[in-house]
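pasting for ref
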Amino acid sequence: MLGFSPFKKHANAFNYTPRYYDPRKEGRGGEYRVGQYLERASELRAERRDAARKSASKRMWGMIVAGVFLVIFLTVGYPRVVAFFTSLGKEKKPYVEEFNPYTPITVVPNDYPGAE
């Protein structure tokens, strides 16, 4: 037993002097209030949580807007795009109107000068 001897008249003393002690710097530290570091850590954690919540809210609205645009494109634009690309491969036939004897004839007046 290294630290205890029944023949000593006093207990072992603890004598510690700090190696780099600056009394001016120690006085500048200010007053310590019990729990001030825990309160500051709690405030910082709450700020980070609020920032993450706002970021998640913005991300959610962005996803909703992107989903709406995707649905609009799939219902309106996609069939037109597919029809356009499928029409590229087909031969185009000239449009010929079929004769129908029952359609009314449109009479256009003669606008040429000298022709009556």
